[in-house]
Structures are given as structure tokens and as C-alpha cells.
Specification:
Radius of gyration of chain A: 17 Å
Largest interface: A-B, 20 and 29 residues
Number of helices of chain A: 5
Number of strands of chain A: 0
CATH superfamily of the domain at 118-254 in chain B: YVTN repeat-like/Quinoprotein amine dehydrogenase
Structural class of chain B: mainly beta
Number of strands of chain B: 36
CATH architecture of chain A: Orthogonal Bundle
Largest sheet of chain B: 4 strands, antiparallel
Oligomer: heterodimer
CATH class of the domain at 118-254 in chain B: Mainly Beta
Radius of gyration of chain B: 22 Å
Number of helices of chain B: 1
Helix content of chain B: under 10%
Strand content of chain B: over 45%
CATH superfamily of chain A: Cytochrome c-like domain
Helix content of chain A: 55-70%
Number of domains of chain A: 1
Largest sheet of chain A: none
Shape of chain A: globular
CATH topology of the domain at 118-254 in chain B: Methylamine Dehydrogenase, Chain H
Strand content of chain A: under 5%
């Protein structure tokens, strides 16, 4: 039984690994949709749904222009101790955070 | 030939009709009907700048109004006659709505970034609390004309975001300064010349509440474990901290949404408060303010709301547990019900006497209505990304 199953497992692993490599470059369109919803709605609790700021700072291209992208990615993943910004690594991968930062810096999609 | 008196009578009748026309709710066509507003309310549709006006007796929506700007984190207070709603939008918009005529009466942009507001004891002053520029602004409740403002300048040149604004007796308002770590109480006895008293709060107050009797102001702290308490009957005694070190030195969990406080937290002689970064509701005696217990819950509480009779506490949760709602029985201090009303539950509101609770499920685009005794769903209404639900029973409450 188990020997017959093994090839399938191997194929699945290869498929998963393959998709993970693709995802590192850019999240899938379905994932992008989820990320847009998450940023607008849940990040929006503090940063405002229009990202013009609230308890957290504005996340508009003009306000982010001076900031290095990698530090913004690190803030999303690890949070900012001493502030209300929590770490999002439970829900977002590095690739997701990179994609979010790139979109924020050019004007976040609706 | 028409008799002069006939014309006069006809004229009077027209005047009476016209006068009536401003009061009744129009129902299907030309027929007009007088009605009160005690069972009305509204639902914020955060994504589209709309509000849906609702009737809690028929459990139906009766009108929808758009053009209210950015309503993410919108809140609402009511005029003392419970006819007009004042909607505070995130973008600083302040909109006065007429629930009977289902229309916008007046709208002003009062700041760049706002978080809510309150109305004075005498109903004449509406006050908005702002993040940018940090401070509060007072408006004439009839005309929305600016009366005065109190910038939250806690140190020279340093302005704080204002949170937790609540009305207190004496035409005063209490609020907290997130960046300044203080509680301020501004007296608007002379609406154009407010007088402000300052008190220490602690690190990063995130919201505040006034107890239903108007005596105590509580500011929840984000930057440390504890709650700042001010006895408004004895302000000379200053503020003090309660529920200190409730985290027992354990590292708190990441907080994905700030909890909200209001006077609904007091029930059965105790205050039921959300713990920051913990899956717990904290319970304190509302006379001694000592901790009397805690209730373990499904996630990090956002709203911890007592039913009007104080028998139940309904709790919703921060992302990622925002599909759950739990009910605590205040007699036993136990969770007696766990519900999954829908995706992204943002808010709950009890009908005036608490036989039902309305719950908004943002990502399902629905408002669900539950029976508070049987926990059965009584109905539901469609709404676009619904968030806050506000019924007119708030009009008569201190601290709203």
C-alpha cells in the first residue's frame, strides 16, 4: 500500500515546491486578491481603508517615498516594538510583504 | 365665486400639510404617517460611504443614504430627540442625518482624520475627536457651526491623537491622548470657551469609557497592562491605575485590532473589559475596582458589550478570530454560547430592551439578527461591508 502511494507523494512535493518558487517571485492572482482585501480591511483598521492613516501612519506613495522597501517589508513581517504595529509573519510570507510594499509605493490597488 | 373664508381655510390646510410633511416618514407613495424614532437606527456601510436606515421592530431596512465619504471607523451619536444622527467619518466628515425624512440635513468637513464623537448632556453641542490635527472640536448641534476647539497639545508643539471621547454630566467631555498618555476633561458650560483639566493616564491609552452613571472615566492602556481610572465626582483625587499587571509579566500576543470601550461594559455591578494581547475578558468590581475574575474566550476581544439588562456579555474578536462571537452569562461568569454568525464580525448592537442583537458580518455583506434568549437567528439584511450598527436608544445614554 505505502509503496504504491510514494510516487504520488513525490509528484505532489515537486508540484508544491514548483509553485512555491513561482510564489516567491509574485503571489498568484488569487493570493493578490486576498492581500488587497487584507490590506484595505484589516491593515485599514489602523491605517484607514483609504490608507490615509489613523492610529497608524498613512501608507500612501508620498509618505513612503523616502523609506527603503526592505525596512517596510521588515516592519510588516516583524512589527515595530513599542508601537501598535504587530508582526504579520503568521499570515504573510516575505513574498507577500514584498508585493504589498511594492504596490503601496506605487499606489495601492482598490 | 370662492368665498374669501374658503381660500383662507384651504390655505391653512396647505400650511398644516406642509408642516406635517417635514415630520412623518413617507411610506409607499403619497400617504404620510406620523411615527416616533425609538425603534430606528442605522448601519454603516464602510466601503461605500453609505448608511442603511433600519427599523428594529419590523427588522427591515427602510432607506439607504450615500455620499458620506470615508466611513472606515465611522461612529454615530443621536440628538436628544432621537431624530437626527451625527455620523463621524474617518476623513473628518461630520454628517447630520434626519432619520424620518431619510436625508442628509447638513455635512461639514471638520478635520483631516477623525475617529468619532459625542454629544453634550443638553444636546446642544456635538464634539468630534480627531487624529489630525490632534484635538477635539465642538459644533452647534443644530447648524454644525464650529463653536470652539481644544488642540491636544500635551507638550509645546506636540499634538496627540485623541481617543475615547465620551460625554459626562455638566456639559463636559472626557477623552484620552494616545501619544500624550493623559486623560483630559473639557467643560463646555460656555461652549465658546471650554476649560480643560488634565490627568495622568499611562502609556498609550487606546480608548475610553464613562460608566453608565457618568461617574467614572476609564482609559484602556495599550502600552502597559492596566486601565486608568478617574472619579469624575472627585477629580481632585486624580487618576489611578486599576487591573495593573494583568498580563502577569507574560509577553502579550500581537494585537491585530484595537479593542473598543464604551459604557456598555458595566453589568451586574462589574466592569467587563477586553484584555490587550490576551484571549481574556477582565472583570473588575465597579465599586472597589479590584479584579474579581477573568473569562477565557476564543480570541482577543474587540467589543465586550453588556445586554441592556446586564445579564449577558457578547464578545467579538480581532483578526484572525473575527468569525466568532461568544456570550458570557454575568451570573456565572461562564461562556454559555459560541456562535459563528459570519465572516469578519465587526460590531454588535442590542435592541433597546435587549430581546435581540444585530451583528454585522463585513465579508458576508450581511447584518444578522439573533434572539438573545434562544440564540436563534431571527433574520438578516443585506448591507455592503457593514461595520457599526447604531440604534436611537443611544440618544438617552450618558457617555455616548
Amino acid at each position: 500500500m505505502s509503496t504504491r502511494r510514494r510516487p504520488i507523494v513525490v509528484v505532489l512535493t515537486l508540484l508544491l515546491a514548483g509553485s512555491a518558487v513561482v510564489a516567491l517571485a509574485e503571489p498568484t492572482p488569487a493570493r493578490q486578491k486576498e492581500l488587497i482585501h487584507l490590506v484595505r480591511q484589516d491593515c485599514g483598521s489602523c491605517h484607514g481603508m483609504t490608507l490615509q492613516g489613523g492610529l497608524g501612519p498613512a501608507l500612501l506613495p508620498a509618505t513612503l517615498a523616502e523609506k527603503p522597501a526592505e525596512s517596510l517589508v521588515a516592519t510588516i513581517i516583524g512589527g515595530r516594538p513599542g508601537t501598535a504595529m504587530p508582526p504579520w509573519h503568521r499570515f504573510l510570507g516575505e513574498d507577500d510583504a514584498q508585493w504589498i510594499v511594492a504596490r503601496l509605493m506605487e499606489g495601492f490597488p482598490k | 365665486m370662492k368665498h374669501p373664508l374658503q381660500s383662507l381655510l384651504l390655505g391653512c390646510a396647505l400650511v398644516v400639510l406642509a408642516a406635517c410633511g417635514t415630520v412623518p416618514l413617507r411610506e409607499s407613495g403619497s400617504a404620510v404617517q406620523l411615527r416616533g424614532t425609538g425603534d430606528l437606527g442605522l448601519v454603516i456601510e464602510r466601503a461605500s460611504g453609505h448608511v442603511t436606515l433600519v427599523n428594529t421592530s419590523s427588522r427591515e431596512a427602510y432607506a439607504r443614504i450615500g455620499g458620506l465619504g470615508d466611513l472606515s471607523h465611522a461612529s454615530v451619536v443621536y440628538s436628544r430627540d432621537a431624530r437626527y444622527a451625527y455620523v463621524f467619518g474617518r476623513d473628518g466628515g461630520l454628517t447630520k442625518l434626519d432619520l424620518l425624512e431619510a436625508r442628509i440635513v447638513k455635512r461639514v468637513m471638520q478635520s483631516g482624520n477623525a475617529i468619532g464623537g459625542s454629544i453634550s448632556q443638553d444636546g446642544r453641542i456635538v464634539v468630534a475627536q480627531n487624529y489630525t490635527p490632534g484635538g477635539i472640536k465642538a459644533f452647534d448641534a443644530d447648524t454644525l457651526e464650529l463653536l470652539s476647539e481644544v488642540p491636544a497639545e500635551y507638550a509645546p508643539g506636540k499634538f496627540s491623537k485623541v481617543v475615547g471621547l465620551a460625554d459626562v454630566p455638566g456639559n463636559k467631555f472626557a477623552y484620552a491622548l494616545f501619544d500624550g498618555g493623559e486623560i483630559w476633561v473639557s467643560d463646555f458650560s460656555d461652549p465658546k470657551k471650554p476649560v480643560t483639566q488634565r490627568f495622568q493616564a499611562g502609556q498609550q491609552p487606546y480608548d475610553g469609557l464613562v460608566t453608565p452613571n457618568g461617574r467614572h472615566y476609564l482609559a484602556g492602556l495599550f502600552g502597559e497592562d492596566g486601565i486608568a481610572l478617574l472619579d469624575l465626582w472627585q477629580p481632585g483625587k486624580g487618576s489611578r491605575k486599576i487591573l495593573e499587571k494583568y498580563g502577569r509579566g507574560e509577553e502579550k500576543l500581537p494585537v491585530f485590532k484595537m479593542p473598543h470601550l464604551r459604557g456598555w461594559s458595566v453589568a451586574a455591578g462589574r466592569a467587563w473589559l477586553p484584555a490587550i494581547g490576551r484571549h481574556e475578558v477582565l472583570v473588575a468590581d465597579a465599586t472597589t475596582w479590584k479584579e474579581t475574575g477573568r473569562v477565557a474566550v476564543r480570541g482577543q476581544p474587540v467589543f465586550v458589550m453588556a445586554s441592556p439588562d446586564g445579564r449577558q456579555i457578547w464578545v467579538n474578536f480581532a483578526f484572525p478570530d473575527n468569525g466568532w462571537v461568544q456570550v458570557i452569562d454575568t451570573l456565572t461568569g461562564q461562556v454559555v454560547q459560541t456562535l459563528q454568525p459570519g465572516k469578519a464580525v465587526l460590531h454588535m448592537e442590542f435592541t433597546p430592551r435587549g430581546e435581540a442583537v444585530w451583528i454585522s458580518a463585513r465579508d458576508d455583506n450581511r447584518v444578522l439578527i439573533y434572539d438573545t434568549r434562544t440564540f436563534r437567528q431571527l433574520g438578516s439584511l443585506p448591507a455592503e461591508a457593514p461595520s457599526g450598527i447604531f440604534f436611537t436608544s443611544r440618544a438617552a445614554r450618558i457617555g455616548f
